[in-house]
Every structure is written in structure tokens, then in C-alpha cells.
Amino acid sequence: MPIVRNVSRAVSQLLQSSGCGCGISIVPVRCIGISPRQVASDASFHSVSFSESDHPRVLITGGLGQLGVGLAKLLRKRFGKNNVILSDIRKPADNVFYSGPFIYSDILDYKNLREIVVNNRITWLFHYSALLSAVGEANVPLARAVNITGLHNVLDIAAEHNLRLFVPSTIGAFGPTSPRDPTPDLCIQRPRTIYGVSKVHAELMGEVRTCFVFFHWCFGRISLYYHYRYGLDFRCLRYPGIISADSQPGGGTTDYAVQIFHDAIKTGKFECNLKPDTRLPMMYIDDCLKATLEVMEAPAEALSMRTYNISAMSFTPEELAQEVQKHVPELQVTYNVDAVRQAIADSWPMNFDDSNARRDWGWKHDYDLPELVSTMFSFLGSDSRIAQAN
Ligand SMILES: NC(=O)C1=CN([C@@H]2O[C@H](COP(=O)(O)OP(=O)(O)OC[C@H]3O[C@@H](n4cnc5c(N)ncnc54)[C@H](O)[C@@H]3O)[C@@H](O)[C@H]2O)C=CC1
Ligand SMILES: CC(=O)[C@H](N)C(=O)O
């Protein structure tokens, strides 16, 4: 096993150079172990650039939610329709089913997920399955299973098959004791929802699982070494609340910011379940998906971290309503606060500091609040209504 010997040699060299004299233990990994056995010792670990015939083979889990179909569309444009497989446990609508490969996959079924990855020669995995903040609080055992056990399955399979893995995190990974205005990448994270707890767990597991050798005293340095040299290529963005026109949100605290558009057009009345002055970071879906592709394509050496905040705008329901009223002046907004969602929102960041993403891999958003609102209305086809209003 020359590669294993090389690993051992590299480890002992590192240990000597670090001078920490720390103990070693093996991180248990399900099945056949991870990348060191599968990677040539002279392999290049710089970011891969793909030729026409050498695109990544992509699997998206939980792909029928608010974000997955849009992500598939973007990735198919870039890598070819048949190189991007959407999966979920729900039945796809006709237009989704006929737009490219779709497969049933329950992330709690480890063997089935592994079979899909193997049979389809998957190289990149976008792990979107989750229960969001509000539905998670309503069903904690299910949220724990999907968001934590499901993630473990995905991590094991990704490590075993050398996948590049994207797992989204969220503003919900912070809590009331985090600095909220602005919230930096690295700060105290003590969320008070099962959703937030599971996302902090995902952030940490993704980084920790990148190494197969665990050093008690110099963990950070060694894990980074193994990450680049042999390990799982884990990438994670903390998304703000995402606003989209052609897909419905799946039960989160920020859902009001999508619903207001539909109600403005349909009834001209909107009942908001958060207080008018609740400030939260938000983003238009195109920016979110653009960032996701960009961080996956970023050269590994550009990434000084593996989990980044990304940000675009931040507003309150009152501010959003005012902007919406520029398009639908007759919109009436009332407030009927949902105590669970309000408590969650009050513990989340008000503004997100994404300076590391901007510096490391050139993240830049395109949509601020006015562009977001006019884009939503042009997408939802409210032109006639706006004309009437004017
Ligand atoms: N939409 C947003 O505002 C934000 C989303 N995110 C993250 O982005 C990811 C995607 O979010 P959305 O599309 O909005 O979520 P969503 O709730 O709309 O969709 C999640 C999907 O996961 C699927 N799912 C549930 N259990 C499953 C299982 N056992 N196996 C396979 N699939 C299962 C559901 O059927 C659903 O289609 C999630 O991880 C979420 O935490 C993070 C921050 C903001
Ligand atoms: C911000 C999120 O993660 C999501 N939209 C939610 O509100 O739960």
C-alpha cells in the first residue's frame, strides 16, 4: 500500500514540523474508508476545470424544494442536461420530470443513495434535503432524522467516493448570543432551533470529516492538510432567506417575503406573520444559485475557509411592503404575529458580514431590494396590475 505509506510519512513529517507531540486516533468511517486509498500520490489537487466531455456528474438531493429545480436548470446549462440528476422523495411535476433526469432518492436510505452515486458515476453532490426552521420545530424527530442522520449518510458516501460536496447552511445557524448586526463568519453559534443545531452540526462535520486521521492537539492544521491532500472536498454557504417567483418556500421563517408577492397580485391583501420591524438578511434566488456554482468552481487554494456567509440585502416586512406598494399601491398589509416564527427571527442575524466570500472567491450579488421586487413582479406577470395602478 504505497499510498498509505506516503500518508504515514507525510503525517509524521507534519507532526515533527508542528512539534506538538499529539496523539493519533482513527475517525471511524463507514464502509471502505476514504480518499487516501483512491488518490494517486502524485495527483494534482488544484481546482478541476472541465472540458466539454469531462463535466462533473451531479446529483441534487431534496431537489424538488424551493431551490433545487432552479439549481438543476443552472447546472444543466453549464454541464449538460444529462449530467445533472435531480432527486427527491416527492413526485415531480410534469415540466420538471421532462426537463432532465429525475430519480427517487430518500437520503435516509444509505444503500440506495450509494447505489445512485455509483451507478451514475456522480462526482459532485449538492445536498439540499432538509426540514426548514418552522416545519422543523413542528416535527423535531423528523427534522433530526432528515437533517442529521441524512447528512451522515451523505457525508459517508461523499467521502467514500471522493465527491465534491456542497451542503447549504443558513442564517439560522446563529442564535441569540451571536453578534447580530453584523454577523461575521466566525463567532459564537448557539442556535435554538433543531434546524439551526443541525446546520451547525453539518458545518462542523463537513470540515471534520475531511480527515481520516484525527490529531487531538493540532486538529485544525492537520485536518486542513488532509482536506487538501486526500480528503472530502466540502463546500458550504450560509444562505440568507431566499426569495423566488416560480417555486414555493418549504416552511421557513422567511417565507413571508415570498408570500407577499403572490398575495399582492392575487388579492391585494397580505397578512404578515412577523412584526413589521423584524430585520433579516434576504437574497434573490438567482444570486443564491450563482454563489453556489461559483463556490463549487472556485479553486481550492482560493478558499481560506470551507463555510462562508453570503449576503445581498437586509430588510424588514415594513420596508418590503413599501417597496411592493410602489408596484401595487393598493396593497393592504396587516400583521398577525406567529409566536414561534417571531422568536426564531428575533434570534437570527439582522445583517450578514460576507466580506470573506467577497475577498476569497469574488462573491458579488446582483440584486438589491428594488431590483428584487421589480424582477419578482415581472416574473409573476403583474404588468397589467402595475399599469392599472399607474
Ligand atoms: N430556501 C431558503 O430560504 C433557504 C434554504 N437553505 C437550505 O437550502 C436547502 C434547500 O432549501 P429549500 O429548497 O428551500 O428547501 P425545501 O424545504 O423547499 O425542500 C427540501 C426538500 O427536501 C426533501 N426531503 C425531505 N425529506 C427527504 C428525504 N428523507 N430524502 C430526500 N429528500 C427529502 C423535500 O421533499 C423537499 O423537496 C436546504 O438545505 C435549506 O436548509 C438555507 C437557507 C435559506
Ligand atoms: C433562512 C432559512 O434557512 C429558511 N428560509 C428558513 O426560514 O427556515
TrEMBL record:
The residues covered by the NAD-dependent epimerase/dehydratase domain are 58-205
Stored InterPro entries: Epimerase_deHydtase, NAD(P)-bd_dom_sf, NAD(P)_epim/dehydratase
Which top EC class applies here? Answer: oxidoreductase
| This enzyme's EC code(s) | 1.1.1.103
Query: Which biological pathway?
Result: Amino-acid degradation; L-threonine degradation via oxydo-reductase pathway; glycine from L-threonine: step 1/2
- GO terms under biological process: L-threonine catabolic process
This enzyme catalyses:
L-threonine + NAD(+) = (2S)-2-amino-3-oxobutanoate + NADH + H(+)
Q: Which domain of life is it from?
A: Eukaryota
Matches recorded under Pfam families: Epimerase
Q: Which GO terms describe its molecular function?
A: L-threonine 3-dehydrogenase activity
Q: What does this protein do?
A: Catalyzes the NAD(+)-dependent oxidation of L-threonine to 2-amino-3-ketobutyrate, mediating L-threonine catabolism.
Q: Which family does it belong to?
A: Belongs to the NAD(P)-dependent epimerase/dehydratase family.
Q: What is this protein called?
A: L-threonine 3-dehydrogenase, mitochondrial
